[in-house]
## 1
Amino acid sequence: MFSKELMVTMMPVSIFMFFCLVPVLLILYIFRHQIRKKKSPINIELLRSPGEALRNQIDKSTDDILEYFMYLIIFPVAMYSISITQYSFLNRKPGIIYFILMGSVLFGAIYFLMKKLYKIFQKRNSLRVGYECELAVGQGLQVLAKYGFNIFHDFPAQKNFNIDHIAVGPQGIFAIETKGRAKFQKTEKDNWKLEFDGEKLFFPGWTETKPITQAISQARWLQTWIESSTGDKHYVTPVLAIPGWFIRQTKPSELRITNGKSFDFLAKNKAVLSEKQIMVISFQIEKMCRTVEVKSYNKK
């Protein structure tokens, strides 16, 4: 059984939580009751949009931010309520040790929550850069539709990775990996340019190789998957898109690289796929990409 002193101590906190949570829960209950009376006009799962997985992660980060902000508000109120209850209702005058202990706990908790929030803000901003770049590339790829291409986004390859974009058309199959890299505010000394030597990406002040190996390995994975799904073997060309940068390629590579401004170059090679092959390959890819469920109302 809880002691009378503990119940009195926690009463202000309980009242505060009650008036914070009950209205929200009541609104949610009424809303859910209302939407049960209708169903969604969409009775199929939708195709994945550019950056679908990143957008879900951004939403999750936003939820985490709201959660930790709530902790940041509630914890000091709870500590204050406990202290004032000890003094006002239980006639206990806190000593210096009590204040030191409570102050240490309070500042330690606030420091932890602020540090956690800062990291989440950093992560969300990084995700937003990636999402915005995938969105830009996805929109840029739409120009290929006039050349007979079918475009798919955020292909769920395996549990640990997605293929950002896939283009299937007469000129072949292209697996496009998008990388968002922020640029410096100042533009002097060519710090808005990058160089690609076929093996490394040379940015102003740093180099990267992982995006190259990632784009190539994902293209090879997709090539194997298409063969197992359709029974036919087709070459998949790896493409790396880094939006917003001026790119200079110094050596040839199997990897095609672009800043995402124009994708017409993918349609300038000779045709290697027939309309039937495009249809068969696109059908298999579309099945994997049609996974987005409607959320406004129940589908049934």
## 2
Amino acid sequence: MVLVSAQQRPFIRVEWHPRVGFAHPQLVMVIAKFTDISAEKRFDEVERLEAEVFEEIRRRYTLESLKHDPVVRAYRDFYWRLSIDPTKQRPASEALIRRILGGGNIWRVNKFVNSYNLASAITGVTLGAYDMGKIRGGLTVRFAEPGEPFQGIGMSSPKPLNGNEIVVSDEEGVVSIYPYRDSERTKITEETQEALLIAYGVPGVQVSLLEEAINATDRIARATLAGRLECYFTSKPSA
């Protein structure tokens, strides 16, 4: 795993719109490149690690204590700032942990997606992964345009955004809604060879924890032969 230094050019260009920086100057993302991706729907190795992770999470939290966890609290507070009710639209990492505490398994998607979902549950950090072969040009973090179409994973058709959402977009459109919904267009599939993994930071969540989420994904992905971390860098609004 290699941290891209300030002297090196990141593997993808990321720009922050000044409006986002003005409204939310404490936002930060850790952006990683994973290679040798395996998105097979075989879960033998994943299931073994799941048992260990689930045991740790059930030892660490209860449904009552979870909502007081500082990382969960930070994502919830940010949702409220975006006028999203986090009790109805759960932060992705919290939803995973709640599912585990309720006695369920995480959704069986594919080996790589399940690897980063486990890392998200362990750290409490919201993660999103995207097929680098489907991303066009660089990325821009900006506010959505009113009426801009977005088709999230699992949605049957695009829905218009209201313009209050913070989005990550490429040259073709919205890649994700920060920090909770990923695009159908750029999702990880069995054809994915390289993946972009983003750890989404919010005020109150340290960069070191975002990096730990990336590194946890690497450890799990290597153990399950789902992929490996090549490098990563940190991106935030310009001062």
## 3
Amino acid sequence: MPTSQSPVTLLKLRASAGESPNAPASSQVYETLRARIVSLELPPGERLSRAELSDQFGVSASPLREAIQRLERDGLVATFRQSRTVVTHMDPDLLQQEHFLRTGIECEVVNALAGMADKSVLKKASAIIRMQRVLVEDPDQIDLFRKLDEDFHYELFAAAGYLPLHLFVTERSSQMARLRSIDLPSEGKLASVVEGHEAVIEAICSSDCHAATDAIRAHLSGTIARLPQIMARYPKYFASEASRKLGKEA
């Protein structure tokens, strides 16, 4: 499971990854809490004390409330009576829908890239693959590997000219992001991710639209295909069938 990092440390990591230190306080708190939830440092079912968070981040109630509202829209937290805020459990139905959304959009992204004459726009994505290949045998660098994985897909959207869509997909794929955090440490998973990235780039560089869409679909489908096994191993991370029918946390 992920190692714990302080909010201040994570804020610095977000800044080094491109998050402006001058961004609104609510955005910085949101990004940091989202990273902690997605990495499972804050696991499903964890209660979030607003008073403690306000002290940790050194912010007033207003920006913290705005950050939590954004997390609620992402489906990562739920707020109940008396402002009790809890990290949500993952819903298998929502996971399938998020996978459907992301796969459909990224298939169109790589299809567009395969049809472009200028492949030089893929230099950054290719460089990321080389860095990931170095990290495959170093499980201690899994957080960096995860960040590079996110960067790879970001660069595909950027190269195709669809960056606004990347934000759209990211905000609507929070459940899948958590599922990938569970699956990533699995034996052989890191190598499989790199091989998937290589297959996508190879197909794009060959201007083979069909192969590119097949490659990205296969690459994105590995984790969701293992959902039953992951649920069996980590049942406490998932909402029960009864609670899903009621539309609330168990």
